[in-house]
Give the backbone structure.
Amino acid sequence: MKKHVLFVIPSLAGFIVFFILPFLIALGYAFVNKPIGGAFVGLKNFIDLFHNKSYLIGLRNTFIFVGTSVPFNILLSLLAAMLINKLAGKRRELFTLVFLIPLVIPSGSMMFFWRLMFSSGGHLNGILAALGQARVKWLETNWVILIIFLWKNMGYNVVLFLAGLNNIPREYYEAAQADGANALQTFRHITAVCLMPTFLLVLIMSVINSFKVFKEVYLLMGSYPHESVYTLQHFMNNMFYSLDYQKLAAATTVFVLIITAFTQFLFKLERKVSQ
Amino acid sequence: MNRRGGTDKSERRTVRGLTSPSAFLALMSVLLALPLAVTVTNSFMTEMEISLRYTDKLSVFDIAEGIKEKFTSIALLPNEVTLDQYAEVLVNQPSFMLLLVNSVKITLPVVLGGLVVSLLGAYGFRVWRWRFKEAVFFAYIVVMLMPLQAVLVPNYIMADILKIKDSSLYLAIILPGIFSPFGTFLLRQSMKGLPEANLEAARIDGAGEWYIFCRVVLPQMRSGIAAYMMLTFIEYWNIVEQAVIFIKDYTKEPLSVYLSRIADGRISLVFAASCVYMFPPLWMLIVGQKDLEKGIELSGIK
């Protein structure tokens, strides 16, 4: 049965060369003072990193964004999925389609629209001016980023939630109805309970997807945006330009550790819930 | 998967509250579709109207009238419908087409190369018998779950080692894309639906693994393949991060990065350019909505 290995080899070889190996090299760089012929410096690169002001701002902003976008994204998409789930046939397909459209449109295609909407002399400030309000510098706030992010990413969660809702046996609802349960009770005791595994899955995917926000921030605001929207990826990008391998490697190591710890925690939680 | 019908009893239960949820859903849909709708309608606007409408700089007339500040006002419909923008973008401006070709040059090799590697890998993981197989696959999942930010530095290091960092064929972007663990994961997930009995039957008939792969497995993978191709196409068509790091030459940029800068230059073409750029993924969505949904469901780990 040696032939079976042959099928795996292209994928596995590429995976090792382009992911595992460079991950290990990056890990090595994080502990030396220069990439070639460097000496072991222990945790110095990490200590430097946590004294770097831009890194801390990037890290803080990234956490704040994940912390706000994920709950909003989950709540709104759950609500949308529950409403769509009441529909059938063509209408159901159509509404799902509307939520999926932003997901497939390339971010660059929408940039001009967002600028017209949110720039200092833009449409939104025009409305505010008509109402007698002062201009707001929308492009320096997290709100715009959050709105664009939700606009683009809700569809993914809506599809996951719809699949989860679909798997709840209809008999449960019929039984609840026969027992005279109201809408809130039905939601709490049937929908919420049956949706728990889906919910955790959505949580994991939402956190991972929330890191994709850099695309929008970068395209809309460039390499050096206002401090309040400076993300971890901005820091990394600027390190790429200065070719500071040690800092990059240390930052990547910290990031990988955080993500791994977080996903492992959620998987453990999921296993507990499904039991 | 059976779709739960909406005309059953559970629907009637909510009839009283039906107007406001539907209104909410309708409102959300309008907000979701608005940016797209405006971009499409504005792509038929004349260059003149765009340059007059979408500037917040004061014109001589404004100053004469004593207007001190001006806000752009987004138009839902153009005053005059014309195809000039499209003619300009598709025919008269070769630079735009070059950037579109750049996007194709990045996306196509990743989608096709990745498909071959991932199909083989997914089938391999299914039939391969090795003690540590699942442990290896777990490594795939861990890397797959890493946000792009975590993978870029390793990608960069390897590109440096292989001296493909400045490759004009975008190898630094394409190769990690082809070998991305996501494809193998997604296709293995969608192969789970294949009954083992089918493969066994073919084996008993004396068919070789290659024959089974081509004649038994592949024909049943249509929807998985479509899902993989769409998800990967969408991701690489919208490439930003890798382009920012690896591409230094403006003429080599994909459209995604260029379009964000166009606003500083010839804004009169931006709507039509955006529409041309988003047409391929939109078309895929409309043709393959079911497959895309399936792909999203499968890409969630269970």
